[in-house]
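Replying to the earlier thread about multi-chain prediction with a worked example.

Input:
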Amino acid sequence: MNQPVVAASGITHSFGSGANRSTVLHDISLEVRAGEVLMLMGPSGSGKTTLLNIIGCLLQPTEGTVRLHGQAVHQLNIEKLAALRLQHFGFVFQSHNLFPVLTATENVMVALDLLGVKRSIAHERARELLALVGLGHRLDNYPAQLSIGQKQRVAIARALAADPPILMADEPTASLDSETGLKAIEFFRMLAHHQHRAVVIVTHDPRIFHFADRVVHIEDGRIGKHEIVTHEPASLTMGDA
Amino acid sequence: MSSVNSLGQLTEGVRRPTTAAHGQSGLTLLIAWRNLVHDRVRFAVTLVGIAFSTVLMGIQLGMLLNFMHTTSTIVDHANADLWIAVQGVRSVDLATPIEERRRFQALSVPGVAAAESMLLQFGSWKRNNGVRELVLNIGVEPFAEMGLVPDMVPDVDIHDALSVPNGVIIDRLYADKLGVHSLGQTVEINDHRARVVGFTNGIRTFTQAPYVFTTLKNARHFTNRSENDITYVLIRVKDGFSKEEVARELKRRMPDVDVLNTDEFSFKSRWYWLFTTGAGITLVSSSLLALMVGVVIVAQTLYASTLDRLPEYAVVRAMGGPSSYLYKIVIKQAIIGGVIGGVVGITIVLVLAYISRDSSSPPQVPFWLASSIGIVTILMCICASLVSLKKVMSIDPVKVFR
Ligand SMILES: Nc1ncnc2c1ncn2[C@@H]1O[C@H](COP(=O)(O)OP(=O)(O)O)[C@@H](O)[C@H]1O
Ligand SMILES: [Mg+2]
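Result:
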């Protein structure tokens, strides 16, 4: 198997201090590899999101180390960590948080603007990405004019805009109907298998379980079952919803 | 529907720069603008607030400028190089008399081309209907070259006019106040007959007492002053002599009076009225108050708009955007508001100044003042964005994944 792109080891995380201190992750070690879909499954409150934040370099763990391509990131300050995310990660958030004042195209362009891509190039690329996720007919719509499924696809296009080697999604199917949800997951699978990206999906949705290459179960902040899933290949496109 | 391969081709299009040059494509400006216009009511409140404080500042400072100019009008228009006055004089309007022999003493000093006497004395002007107004009589030599300059009285020969017995010249601005309807009208000053023989244009007084120009002799007569009393000796320095040297020599020969050059005396008069009376302080402090009102309104609306955008700003941070990207949005939002509100406000100020140009105390808004107010308005908006910047600085990207 290839080298891990992200390797977390001995991760322990606590929130609060004194009497309010609660430890939500206990000694977790985990590797994320390019070309595979890793799912973090577990009940609500088990610490999945916290773990995703830590391996996504959004949060420094109380204990343990995170290595990105072999480099430890725990000594970096907030701005350095942000620069690292910009270079390596694409995020799809559960509440897509698109700028309501920007069109679909402009929302995707924000990700490219952060990288300093010229406006004309960014515009062109944003439109291509939106076409790719099946929103070629919604380019100039504002988020308020889009369905939840369409907003999520804008969010996916935005996450892909900077061509990140690692994609992370928190509960991507939670707000979608099953059909739309499955299409989104298939698309993530395609990105992992055909584009050799690392994809990490946090979910407690059992319907999408069999789209994973590897599933890590989290229970009360500890790693439970760790399984390799085998399955038939998924379709390679993301249709309209 | 699109195939995987097309994404593969797409991804080749973007190669990450090693040092990212964020926000080059003008998207922060677009976001700032859309944030502003998104909430029309809030935008309107912002603009009204900015324009309001700009108008207040402009009018107050314009009045201050006008006030400053009028307090020294007599000095600035006298065409003299040096002034001899009673020791310790503080303002041109407030000098007690000196003896006329000072003029002859001055004439004997080398470098003095001309020395003329001037008497300034308050008097009571009685209108035909019996109403009395306080006036400031200014008496000059019959053939004076200083004190009352010809371009102040465009339509008549002042020397001819003043040769009319008891002739006085007043400003058109105060004709109504002094109950004067036509040339040649007779009035009373301290119960002495006087005749209006000419009008000046736009010689304003900053006190309630209009200036009444007349001859030295008339002025003494109207105000019951002795033949020996004058207020100032106005001095013109000969070409080739330095004003400073002549002033020094005058001072040496007459140590018990003040010798001031025109700039000094002008400044002194302005300073006195602006800062030792409450007048200037009032105008300056109400401008500052207007500025503060502006800061508060802009800070409020900008903060509300920033709070609305917090989830999206947190996403930008989570995606790896630097905080400076968000600062740019907030500051641009403040500057756009400042520019639009400022332009509206300054336009209103200029229109008001134009409309009131013939009143007795019109705000003076020259280009430098208008542009300074514009800059102050924009700085005010940037200041007002500090609270929002502080909020943006504290955004925790982790919050968006919860
Ligand atoms: N910022 C925080 N401050 C305090 N407690 C937190 C914070 N974030 C998460 N938690 C707590 O940590 C636990 C795990 O939360 P989370 O990682 O969001 O779980 P999951 O995503 O599996 O539902 C929960 O009990 C939650 O209340
Ligand atoms: Mg969660």
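The two ends of chain A are 36 Å apart (CA to CA).

Feel free to reuse this layout for your own posts.
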